Amino acid sequence: MNKFIQVLTIAGSDSDGSAGAQADLKTFMACGVYGMSVLTAAVAGNSYGIHDNVNMPISFIKNEIKDIKDDFKVSAFKTGMLSDSEIITTVANEIKDKPFGKFILDPVISTKHGAMLLEPDAYQTLIDELFPLADLITPNYYEAQKLSGLKLESKDEIITAAKMLRKLGPKNIMIKGQHNDNNISTVEDYVLLEDGTSFWISEPYVETTHVNGTGDTLSSCIVAEIAKGQTMDQAIRTAKTFTYEAIKNEIDVGHKFGPVNHLIKI
């Protein structure tokens, strides 16, 4: 029993299917693993934007996690949108004994354009409660700016920021490069691994409005690949390629800001 590779996302539901738990589950399937979800919140939205949202009751989140623990063998998992301090603390308490294997934390603090998504108290709770438990964090450019207090205007600053983030507790750091600047030709990410080794990884910049769920897709692919037995280094490289191909091979869904394409094969 429970021999097929199983993974988990603890995240919000996005009604248009482009991001959140829906993007995670699509990525898991594309990567050949069985995905499960614990929903922390739900948003009503479409390609034009988000128009309503609601948090799941704390008791419900606890029961979701309990039911996964009681039945399944999860090899790796991730967190996405955790809306407030109470939800963050609840999740932290439920995963402290590492029941679900390696933990990839997608710190949903701000959008890829720099808009803050967390209130100040929730932001600090995320750092205090979840960062020390994470095997990898994957902040975007603006999240890394916020976390480090640096402007990240050079590679040296990004390297310094990664070292600063390591001191907050995560074992491995992946700082995703800026990708909303039309003057750039490549998107460069910096990775600092637990053993001290580091590397830059890049793909060509793609001019498109279909980039919803890129962070979810990247972190979910890392989860899937780790569950399949890849090293952290290998999983990150595979996920970078998968996400790039999902952006490059655009699908025509929605009228404005659309999803990436999880149907691609690498």
UniProtKB/TrEMBL annotation:
InterPro entries associated with the record: HMP/HMP-P_kinase_dom, PM/HMP-P_kinase-1, Ribokinase-like
Pathway connected to this protein: Cofactor biosynthesis; thiamine diphosphate biosynthesis; 4-amino-2-methyl-5-diphosphomethylpyrimidine from 5-amino-1-(5-phospho-D-ribosyl)imidazole: step 2/3; Cofactor biosynthesis; thiamine diphosphate biosynthesis; 4-amino-2-methyl-5-diphosphomethylpyrimidine from 5-amino-1-(5-phospho-D-ribosyl)imidazole: step 3/3
Matching CDD domains: HMPP_kinase
Kinase is among the record's keywords: yes
Its EC number(s): 2.7.1.49, 2.7.4.7
Residue ranges of domain Pyridoxamine kinase/Phosphomethylpyrimidine kinase in the record: 14-261
Reactions the enzyme catalyzes: 4-amino-5-hydroxymethyl-2-methylpyrimidine + ATP = 4-amino-2-methyl-5-(phosphooxymethyl)pyrimidine + ADP + H(+); 4-amino-2-methyl-5-(phosphooxymethyl)pyrimidine + ATP = 4-amino-2-methyl-5-(diphosphooxymethyl)pyrimidine + ADP
A Pfam family: Phos_pyr_kin
The protein, known as: Hydroxymethylpyrimidine/phosphomethylpyrimidine kinase
Organism: Companilactobacillus huachuanensis
